[in-house]
Amino acid sequence: MTAPRARADSTRVGERASREYLERVFEETKNWGRWGPDDERGALNWITPERRAAAAALAREGHVVSCALELATLAGPGNPNPAQHMMIAAGDARDMVAPGLETSLDYVGVAFHGMAVSHIDALCHVFVEGRMYNGFDASLVKSIGALRNSIMSARDGIVGRGVLLDIPRLRGVRWLEPGDCVVPDELVAAEHAQGIEVREGDILLVGTGRDARRAHHGPWDADTGLAGLHPTCVPWLHGRRIAALGSDGVSDPLPANETPGWPIPIHQCCLVAMGVHLLDNLELGRLASACASRRRWEFLFTLAPLRIERGTGSPVNPLAIF
Amino acid sequence: MTAPRARADSTRVGERASREYLERVFEETKNWGRWGPDDERGALNWITPERRAAAAALAREGHVVSCALELATLAGPGNPNPAQHMMIAAGDARDMVAPGLETSLDYVGVAFHGMAVSHIDALCHVFVEGRMYNGFDASLVKSIGALRNSIMSARDGIVGRGVLLDIPRLRGVRWLEPGDCVVPDELVAAEHAQGIEVREGDILLVGTGRDARRAHHGPWDADTGLAGLHPTCVPWLHGRRIAALGSDGVSDPLPANETPGWPIPIHQCCLVAMGVHLLDNLELGRLASACASRRRWEFLFTLAPLRIERGTGSPVNPLAIF
Amino acid sequence: MTAPRARADSTRVGERASREYLERVFEETKNWGRWGPDDERGALNWITPERRAAAAALAREGHVVSCALELATLAGPGNPNPAQHMMIAAGDARDMVAPGLETSLDYVGVAFHGMAVSHIDALCHVFVEGRMYNGFDASLVKSIGALRNSIMSARDGIVGRGVLLDIPRLRGVRWLEPGDCVVPDELVAAEHAQGIEVREGDILLVGTGRDARRAHHGPWDADTGLAGLHPTCVPWLHGRRIAALGSDGVSDPLPANETPGWPIPIHQCCLVAMGVHLLDNLELGRLASACASRRRWEFLFTLAPLRIERGTGSPVNPLAIF
Amino acid sequence: MTAPRARADSTRVGERASREYLERVFEETKNWGRWGPDDERGALNWITPERRAAAAALAREGHVVSCALELATLAGPGNPNPAQHMMIAAGDARDMVAPGLETSLDYVGVAFHGMAVSHIDALCHVFVEGRMYNGFDASLVKSIGALRNSIMSARDGIVGRGVLLDIPRLRGVRWLEPGDCVVPDELVAAEHAQGIEVREGDILLVGTGRDARRAHHGPWDADTGLAGLHPTCVPWLHGRRIAALGSDGVSDPLPANETPGWPIPIHQCCLVAMGVHLLDNLELGRLASACASRRRWEFLFTLAPLRIERGTGSPVNPLAIF
Predict the structure, then answer these.
(1) Which chains touch C (3 or more CB pairs under 8 A)?
(2) Which residues make beta-bridge pairs with D308?
(3) With D243 labelled, which of B12, B149, B185, D16 sits at a CA distance of 20 to 30 A?
(4) What's the average model confidence in pLDDT over A263-269?
């Protein structure tokens, strides 16, 4: 297969990369066994204490930017399973919950995967031919939960250097259109334009302007698709040894790749081959502004999934700290 | 009223402080209006960018300690509303969710208030005589959610200097018994023993050894109560201008105070009078060990509630970073 | 006001009846106090044991027809809050739930009001100017549930004579279009055509062919509206002393009536003025066929809401027994 | 194995019947293939239209008795997963849900299996050595739901002759103690005492007085166990060709049988071998009174599960109509 080289190719509907290419890339980017046969942390192993400490030193202003969307409780084509937020007791019953106690209480519930909720994917979220990261069998993800590669692998949080590559800024547009693909050359070009280099152990965030687009077009138009990374970005991501990958979309462009067996190559190669946790549906508009105004695209990044035993991920509110 | 002075008093069952005392303290520690009539952030206002940056400088080792319990999905006397974790699709249906896509999905739901889930209380969680922090009326917390003082006040996270006061260590015990009360003198004594001072803008964590006790006694024995802060700690907390208060219990000792109208004075004075967010049911055992081994009880603290519009709080996984 | 007389008027978008007319009808059809000041059963009081026994005598064939839709777990414009059905344990974990026990378990949850789930509305579901049936104040429906007029009023089921009026059959069409209104003359005409009379204590079901339309157009097109009863049907319903009213839509035509304060006059007058429970989103296609093939439009009708204390209704599966 | 003959044996803790006996009974009571290789309705096939019509003729008084408990929203040892009932909008927000509409809304959710909720078990709820009724493999019950033997087999309701056998009445006690076992001779004795015979196609309800006991001892003491049917009742149930079996407990006595592989023989033999749906946790106290006062223990019985596709059962509110 010849990888797409030009922007012109990048928005093509259909097969974004051939099966042969993807199978080869999948094999070549496998980190299975790299951190031992029982490892479930994958590329999080790239984050060393030294790198965390260096990242913390980036927080010299004490300015915090949340990278999460408001929890999406309204249904729409891009949010078929809206989050639930229900009061258990409100101000009208403030003295009826327990004797002498005035309180309000609520419940929150969410099927967080999808295109609407800011969340982290555990390494058990996707399989390729029945296998997870490090070769664990899909049957280990049971109806009672994931016995391997659950989100508990990240239970102590993901703390390290965050780097934003701002593709709309590179292209001089407000946002990328759904289905549009970011190619590897653009990642490199963004590095150059921003004066930064993605390094081993970084949490890489790729902005596509989705928030600006949604602000313009209205909520949850995601059914028309999302911009994302072209499959040919996989070797580049692998080469840079990133620890985690986030996006304001779901990293994979949608509509899905039409190559049989490879609908979402970024998910498949990152989660399964490389053991790279994915951060989906982040809000990167505020972050892009914060970076641009400082001309600084690196920051201390912290993310703390809920400690959900056997979980396939978690809703999150990641913080970028300058 | 004469405040209890001695340890001997602190475990007394019954009225821990008189109504007159609590009413006076409530009035004297009120921050209503301090940050303007529309303020909903309360004591989070004490955290300045400078203080955050100084806190980040504490993260010089790059060592992270999670302060959250595993999400409690098993019911028990102290966990009457167990969290829900249910798979939507597992490895046995990996190719049945969407054509060509092998995936696992789940749902998580939680009524997080109570004694089992690590969570943050929004300033709308408790009322005193029908009022919330800054004087807002309880009726503004409706069946459709909180129109004021929701958890969205903390939507950009709580990042600052965390300080742990380790009371079992001070007392030379493994844990405090349920109902036992920490008095102000002990907070000061812990500061001295640990060589640290609680300062304006700190996130104060008070450890009572609950995790060690539960490990010994088994899960969710909380029905027998929790250790916590004696009501006379309120003026001290107010004087130190803390930004948030966390505990491995719920800060208030349980069984509840028997003074009519004042069942949980710490909640009532912190949330309502002072505008201090509370962090309940943290896991502080790991943190206590990390602090003791370093002989350092300060660290960068980060907490990021889910961005739940109109919510009364959020489950969280706070991180302490050394 | 002049009530619409002709079919030509019935599909008019906009104000289907004036405010003056609706206010007058509301007052004239009020059953408040009729069964005492504490009554919460409303028109269910019309069903006497004698009428139930007579209805049971209609079940002479022993043929049962379910009047419920499959629980709608897929979101769509007409189903913004899809029901939740999640397995807790499946065949892949059959021996992991409890030692030696092979079992599967699941969870079902539903916000049943709306346009997708077959359900019964309790008399607390709608207010008119802050009042419920029998004059109870809306404030009695609290964030912790309905203290009056909850679904527990029907906790022992609704059993009586069911009568179907089949409007598409009357009109010689397969279905009524969304927004189309059934007028009182048509109810009478349907009675004549079917050789049946709606009597005191009957459970009246009005079919509009929604199921046939959905089968043709695809699922949950309900955003384009629903056919229903014109507001001028209210006096007729009151005069007949029906015990409950059901429909394959929601009885009220949608889009809603544009008269200020009277968006859904059937709901408002039935639930609030008359105390008539409503059955929404029934599946009446199978029933219509069963009736037509027998040329018999009466049957034993049984409906049993879940016994939800303080609930505003319940999902149901009503049965028509011939 | 020799089946227990005497009451004295019936409350024995431990092995209530040997493995050899249970394996033999399981084989001898199998209805697999009886109604064809694809049948999923099992013993519901015993209910013919004629039997339904005859049952309807029993409803000559028009008196209805609900056989369901209030939905159990409070946790306890016997109710570890309390049902959820949460308001979405109450009277305090009656005009804030939709413009001009005054409404209240709620949500109900329940993991209905267990010892607290009145529910029906679908034939997919239990496996024996990886098999369901009619030989279907347990792997057909997936994380996405049951592809075979789901509750949809009963989607058109269960309507027929109900018969109550009132064991406390037979024994002259108010209730049976947890763990106590009803033996086949008692079923026959109850028939004689009540002047009724259990026949082909009946829905058999066996009362153990659980409701009276709970009223005396307080809610959800079920952790101490439940009275139920001794395993030796299985051949009798099979011989009578009942269509469904209900109880105020869960039919099986608890604590569970200690014979390896046979913890709940009634569930295992009824659901898997015979294809008999089970109705658990019914409220039979009101029914027992209604029967005794009439000296009539037969009635029209109607039960209508929610139409939950792929579901393992449903919460229900069965009705007995005299």
Answers:
(1) A, B, D
(2) none
(3) D16
(4) 97
Cβ atoms of residues D163 and D136 within 8 Å: no
Instruction: Name the CA dihedral angle for B97, B101, B103, B107, rounded to a multiple of 10 degrees.
Output: -40
3 state SS of B286: helix
> Is-contact C53 D59, C-beta < 8 A?
yes
Q: Which residue has the tokens 């394996």?
A: D23
pLDDT at C97: 87
For chain D, what percent of residues have pLDDT higher than 90? 87
Give pLDDT tens digits for B106-154.
999 999 999 999 999 999 999 999 999 999 999 999 999 999 999 999 9
Cα(C72)–Cα(C76) distance, integer angstroms: 10
Question: Which residue among B88, B89, B92 places its CB closest to the CB of D139?
Answer: B92
- Rounded distance, CA B148 to CA B310, Å? 8
What span, in angstroms and rounded, lies between the C-alpha atoms of C206 and C190? 10
| Strand-pair category, D277-280 with D244-247 | parallel
Q: Is the CB of A18 inside 8 Å of chain B's CB atoms?
A: no
The pLDDT tens digits for C118-158 are 999 999 999 999 999 999 999 999 999 999 999 999 999 99
Structure tokens at B69: 């319990």
Q: What's the sign of the alpha-carbon dihedral D29, D35, D39, D44?
A: negative
Rounded distance, CA A194 to CA D291, Å? 83
**Residue D184: CA atoms inside 13 Å, Cβ hemisphere, count?**
14
CA dist D79 and D75 (Å) reads 5
pLDDT for position A12: 46
Q: What is the pLDDT of residues B237-283, one digit of tens each?
A: 999 999 999 999 999 999 999 999 999 999 999 999 999 999 999 99
User: Does C77 sit behind a cis peptide bond, omega within 30 degrees of 0 on the bond before it?
Assistant: no
Question: Hey, what amino acid is at D291?
Answer: C
User: Which CB contacts under 8 angstroms, 24+ apart, belong to C189-193?
Assistant: C190/C165, C190/C166, C191/C165, C193/C169
Query: Looking at chain D, which residue has its C-alpha nearest residue A73?
Result: D88
Q: Decide: residue C18, CB within 10 A, 0-12 exposed, 13-18 middle, 19+ buried.
A: middle
Q: Is the pLDDT of residue B6 over 80?
A: no
How far, CA to CA in Å, does B196 sit from each of A286, B60, B287, C214, D143?
A: 36, 18, 16, 70, 52
d(CA C213, CA C174): 8
ipTM score assigned to the predicted complex: 0.95
CB D198 within 8 A of CB D186: no
Contact C215, C183 (CB under 8 A): no
A window 94-113, beta carbon within 8 A of C: 96-97, 104
